[in-house]
Amino acid sequence: MYHLECIECGQKYTDSEVVYTCKCGGLLDVIYDYSAIQLDMERLRTEAPSVWKYKALLPVEGKPVSIHEGGTPLYRCDRLAEKIGIKELYVKHEGLNPSGSFKDRGMTVGVTKAMELGMKTLACASTGNTSASLSTYGAKAGLPVIVLLPEGKVALGKVAQALIHGAKVLSIRGNFDEAVVLVRQLCDEEKIYLLNSINPYRLEGQKTIGYEICDQLGFNVPDRVIVPVGNAGNTAAIYKGFRELRELGVTESVPKMTGIQTEGACPVTKAFKKGVEEIIPEKNPETIATAIRIGNPVNAKKALRAIYGSGGYSEAVSDEELIEAQKDLAQLEGIGVEPASATSVAGLKKLIDSGVIDRDETVVCITTGHLLKDPEEVINISTKPITVDANIEAVRKAVFSR
Ligand SMILES: Cc1ncc(COP(=O)(O)O)c(C=O)c1O
Ligand SMILES: N[C@@H](CCOP(=O)(O)O)C(=O)O
User: Tryptophan synthase beta chain-like PALP domain: from which residue to which, for each copy (predicted)?
Assistant: First the structure.
């Protein structure tokens, strides 16, 4: 039993309505009757993690459109922890989902819901990963997909994914925030199902990151979870996952939700530093982390409530700081991530150095997308290959040269 509810005015909507925001303009949440949910703790403790392991806490009845999403590894990262100067650090690598990002958790639920609602076409605006994921799940469901991308600002791997899975790809002469406005109008006027994170059902899939972190820590809660923030849905979704486990009596606390942006695109961090819930949209966001090159995040209010409500924090890092973190993850832990993902680790380092985060805290950093999403950025920041003649002397000389 569940319904949609406005986070501003409390207006309720039924599960059969196609609605993304309240009449008052407020964001919607999926609300359950928790007293009616029976969790089989024996099964939870023994079954391997995956999104659909938690079906009792998801808003769909039918057979899921699924290609095995979730169940991503939670790595204990002692070498990285030593470099940063913290006792216990974990990285939850969401880049190991089927299409290479956390969006798959949301899409498996959102596309299943689209089928239940009888929607015939799916759409999104995207900085890349949402489009890659929606194209993948649309293909699995047999539904056509339309994606609106900011021209020239989407990493190559992501464009390739949307193309090969058969989406209709529109390259918009404008930025992501402008593409969002267009796709919302298109979906409203043409009865196309919108699968950006403004859709509350999509965020229900993403909340399973919170469930899984607890699950993988033996149903214990870390002190802090650090999340890269772009359109700001994931921070809110993960927090909801932790809150629900507490509500159901599975755990007793929630982690301090900590959202990291880049200095060139940080409306959420700026609002946090002022102590307010309203962001001031940024007209020209700019960062090497194209996935989070977003100036007017639609879920900003939900994310800020998660941060304030959990006693968390928000910080912005420079492109240089996130590149260093991207290299550290790759070279100290063997974890390959795209630039936006590395902001969580860069933010951790910055907040340890400034004394905001205690060195004794147990911290989980979320890495949101796979390294191979953005090969061009990796080539640009890395030492170039050495070209040598095809003889052993030349090879030996190159191997032993400094
Ligand atoms: C790789 C990656 N990391 C982080 C984010 C930010 O997530 P959210 O929009 O939920 O804040 C996105 C997309 O926005 C992304 O593609
Ligand atoms: N990084 C995102 C931006 C759109 O976010 P969404 O969660 O609202 O779909 C992307 O990959 O497109």
Answer: 66-369
